[in-house]
Amino acid sequence: MLHKILLTLTLLLGSAGHAAEQSVKQYDVDPKTGLRMERYRAPVPVDVPGGTTLDSAQAIAAQTQGKAIFIDVYPPKGLGPDPLDGHWVITEERNSIPGATWLPEVGTGTLSAEAEDYFKRNLARLTNNKPESSLVFFCTSDCWQSWNAARRAINWGYSSVHWFPLGTDGWLEAGQETTTVQPVNFQDDSMPTIVPVEAATSPTGKPAFPDSARIFLLDQQGREMDIGSVVFSATDTQDTGVSVELDSDHFIDQFLSMRPFKCLTDPAEWFCYLPYPYELTQTVTPADLTELEYQLLFIWKSSSSFGIDAWNGVYYQLSWQEDGTLQGKLLQGDLNVLANPPEPFSHPIDLDEFITEDAQSRLFPSLIIR
């Protein structure tokens, strides 16, 4: 009887793997790598080529038995790994499946050499260099990063890869408990305590916000263009007030797609400022710079096109530098979400759907505030 059950399971897993190979072609993945390259928060496939898909009951059984290695690839909110010691500077804790190992940012479509090495050496460490070890990759529901991570492990020769597409959302819906996890150090693979951004100071130990600062866009050659100022002010709370004024003579008034814009024009590409059209609290903390980021939205367009399309949205994700300046990393994504009014004082832009790929090809790949 046991032999028949094992044979049935083997046949089922084999047919699931075959079906995965057939079905992956219909999904929006890169034809060369077979990975999703953008918009990671979106409906996911039903399977992963070469791997096994788990539903909630199967994931619970695997975790209860303790024979599978659970790997959470949820992208953290915060400033990423510290370049000095590798600890992850995060602003929001992650509650995950008990016993899981958190390896952030290993499920993006493109990995830096350092991130790829981080992923490879931790897989080797967790499996004790046994590629036949059972691995379970997950994130949240509708998270392509877990699919990418599973696919990547399969491509690297791991032969027992499982994918739990419902992730922690499905885990909680099944009545299971989660626990706070810590991201594995990016450099030495240890698991230190979570290090949040300090609430009152910048990384230099000085007061985080000056009274005012200038905003500079950096082109592909690293040349700076002064485009305006940001003013910080005290409030009745611990938050700091923030307002942006773009006052550069480089901006040219344009009328595009029946709307006025201030644009920075170049023979190859235009950058047009998009004022956020809804109410904001207009406050920031050193750990949360979202409301400043929302005041620095742009749309790029080809100089030869007539209209403008919010699909080509530009979002500068800010992070502290060692000298106390703020640097903006360019993310590209669809800003059409702003066409419909959101909840008052909410932040409707989902950065999980924005990408860093091809950022260096844009007119101004980065931004500095100092």
The assigned structural class equals: alpha+beta
Mean pLDDT, all residues: 86
Strand percent estimate:
25-35%
Q: Order of SSEs, N→C? A: HEHEEEEEHEHEHEEEEEEEEHEEEE
Radius of gyration: 23 Å
What percentage of residues falls in helices of 4 or more residues? Answer: 10-25%
Query: Based on the structure given, which CATH architecture of the largest domain is correct?
Result: 3-Layer(aba) Sandwich
**End-to-end gap:** 72 Å
CATH class of the largest domain: Alpha Beta
**How many strand units?**
20
Annotated CATH topology of the largest domain: Oxidized Rhodanese, domain 1
Helix count from the secondary structure assignment: 6
| Low-pLDDT residue intervals, each spanning 5 or more residues | 1-24, 193-201
Q: Can you say what the CATH homologous superfamily of the largest domain is? A: Rhodanese-like domain
Shape: globular
Total number of domains:
2
The order of strands across the largest sheet is 13-14-15-17-18-19-20-10-11-12-16
